Amino acid sequence: MASVRPEETVENDALPRAMAAESKLYVDIEEGCSPIVYRDEYNIHLLGMEKLHPFDACKWGNVVKNLKKKQWLKNAKFVSPNEASEADLKLVHSASYIRSLKWSINVAKIMEVIPAAILPNMVLQKKVLKPFRFQTGGSVLAGKLAVEHGWSINIGGGFHHCWGNEGGGFCAYADITLTVHFILNHYPHIERVMIIDLDAHQGNGHERDFMGRKDVYILDVYNKFIYPNDAYAKKAISRKVELFAYTRDEEYLDRVSTHVEGALNEFSPHVVIYNAGTDIMEGDCLGLLSITKQGIIERDEIVFQKVTQRRIPIIMLTSGGYQRSTAAVIADSIDNLSKKSLINILV
C-alpha cells in the first residue's frame, strides 16, 4: 500500500440514503435462525490455483463443518446473505476501482496468486470475486443482525486491507467500511462505531476510509514488522498497539484486555465491529506471532465479555488466518462463547 498517494481518498462520509434503501443486503431472517451468517458460496474453487496461496480458500466452509461436528449444533440454522451488487459496492468504492477488477491481472495481484492473471476475467469474477461479494453481503447483514439481536458473527469477511480506491492482501471489497455506513444510515440512534481489529496485520483499508472521522474509533493491535506497514493509514488509528514478532499468549492477552477496556471507556461506542483474525496463531507464516489455540479462544472471550457487559451490539468477522487448522479454532471459539453465555445460538 506504500505506493498509494495519501491524497487519493474516496468521498464516502455518508451513503446516498435512497441508494442504500434500495439495497437488498438487509433482509429479514427466518424464525429459529441464529444471527450467524454463512452460505456455501463463500468458498473459493479456482481450478486448483487457490492452493498457490497459503490461505485456506475453503476456510469458511470448514468452520461450519467443525461447528456441525459439535452435537448440540447439528441442527442450528444460520442466516444466508445476499450478494453485494455493483450498486452496493459503489456506495464505498470508486467507479475506477470497480472497473479495475475487470482486468485479471488486478484480481490476481489482490489474490497474491499471479498465475491467475492468465485466466479469463469472467472466470475470476465467478470463482473469486463472487465469493468475496457474498461475504461482503454477509458482513453488511451481520451489522443489521447485531443491532437487532445484540450480537452476530459472519463466518467470513473482515477484508481490512481494501479501501475505496484499492484492494490488496486477499481483500477485494471494503466490507467493514460498507457495514459501518449501512449501520449509520439505517439506525439513527447509532452515532458512534468502534472497530476492534485484532488480525495480525494492520487494518489499513478501513483506516484509510475513515481518516479524520470522529464517529468511528479504531483500535488496531498488529505485528508491526509485517504487511502492509501503511504509515499514512496509521494516522487514522485511535489506539495503536504494535507488537513484536513472535509475541506470546501472556503478553498478548494482557495487552488486548487492557486496550479493549481502555478503548471502550474512552469512546463509548453504540456498536462494535470485531475483526477477529486467527493469523495471530503460532505457525502462521504471514502473521508471525506465537499465540496458542487456547490464546485465541481466550482473546475472543475477552472481547465479547467486555463489549456485551456494556450491552453494546457486536459484529464478529473472521478475517485472516492462513493455516488449515484455523477453521477448527474458530469453531471452538464460537462454541466457547456459547458455553460462556456470551452468545445465544438457537438449536
UniProtKB/TrEMBL annotation:
- GO CC aspect terms: histone deacetylase complex
UniProt-listed Enzyme Commission number(s): 3.5.1.98
Give the matching Gene3D superfamilies. Answer: Histone deacetylase domain
Kindly list the residue ranges recorded as spanning the membrane.
Answer: none
- Keyword set for this entry? Chromatin regulator, Hydrolase, Nucleus, Repressor, Transcription, Transcription regulation
Where does the record place the Histone deacetylase domain? Answer: 53-331
Catalytic reaction annotation: N(6)-acetyl-L-lysyl-[histone] + H2O = L-lysyl-[histone] + acetate
- What this protein is called in its record is Histone deacetylase 11
Task: Report the source organism.
Answer: Petrolisthes manimaculis
